[in-house]
Amino acid sequence: MESNNAENITQQENTADTYLDDLGVNWETLKGKKVLDLGAGLARFTQAAKRRGVNVISIDRHPEWHSDEGTPPKDVPYAIADGLYLPFLDNSFDVILSRAAVHSMIEIQEDMEQLINEAKRVLREGGEFRFGPGAVGVRPIRENEWDKWFELVDKVRNKKEITPEEDAWGEKVYPRIEQEEKEEEELKHLPPEQRARRAQRLFLVQLQSIDPLISMHEGNKNRDYYGDVYFVLKKPPAITNRNNSSKPVMG
């Protein structure tokens, strides 16, 4: 029993080390902050934080992916929920950390927008959402829509009747698909390192189209199997008037 406990603690500490290294934080900066670990898996980071008196809440939609029992740990705060619909009140957290998990929450641009908006909603003024490492990117359409797309392409090529609904959907998604094809063509001719850098820049452009305040930072270069950058969204403080009132200035 003692050996199992020691092994669990070692795993928790190793996970915590990767969080700190890959997301540009440290225990000192997290002290006194309320932290959300988004995509927490077995909550190893939260358990390591608990030993240091750092207030972390874990959330994951699929604990069964990480545990044979299919249930999250009982000794730390843990919510089973989707990152696109966070079950927390506005202004609840100072920091949101999401290490190597965002890719499992999003498919298309609208998902990324929803994730960013939810993060901003539950963050307090001046709070940060840190996620990575590496670039994720979004697809032009959902995985289960590709058959629908190819059927529409077949109808166009064979001059078959297209419904108004199909036509409207095609008009919406075609520019996205065309853009992805263009980017893939550009990337495949680049050497691996340049390809990774270019993919990271393209993902940053996608993110900044949602919120221009999102920035990209150099991360832990020893973890090149994930990529060596992470991203930070900072929620700005409310604008105050000249009398230092805490109320936002109204237009």
Would you kindly provide a written description of the structure presented here, covering whatever features stand out?
41% of the residues lie in helices and 16% in strands. With 251 residues, the protein is an alpha/beta fold. It has a domain at 2-138 and 211-234: Vaccinia Virus protein VP39 (Rossmann fold, 3-Layer(aba) Sandwich). Strand 4, helix 4 (109-122) and strand 5 (123-132) form a beta-alpha-beta unit. Residues 245-251 have low confidence and may be disordered.
What are its keywords?
Rossmann fold, disordered C terminus, seven-stranded mixed sheet, 7 strands, elongated, alpha/beta, 251 residues
Quickly describe the structure:
This protein has 251 residues and is α/β, with parallel strands linked by helices.
What coarse outline follows from CA principal-axis ratios?
A: elongated
**Would you identify the CATH H-level superfamily of the domain at 2-138 and 211-234?**
Vaccinia Virus protein VP39
Strand content: 15-25%
- Assigned CATH architecture of the domain at 2-138 and 211-234: 3-Layer(aba) Sandwich
Q: Give the C-alpha Rg.
A: 21 Å
Strand order of the largest sheet: 3-2-1-4-5-7-6
Number of helices in the DSSP assignment: 7
- Under CATH, the topology of the domain at 2-138 and 211-234 is which? Rossmann fold
Residues in helix, %: 40-55%
Major beta sheet summary: 7 strands, mixed
**Distance separating the two termini:** 63 Å
Pattern of helices and strands: HHEHEEEHEHHHEE
Spans where pLDDT lies below 50 across 5 or more residues: 245-251
Task: Assign the CATH class of the domain at 2-138 and 211-234.
Answer: Alpha Beta
By DSSP, the count of extended strands is: 7
Overall mean pLDDT stands at 89
| Category by helix and strand content | alpha/beta
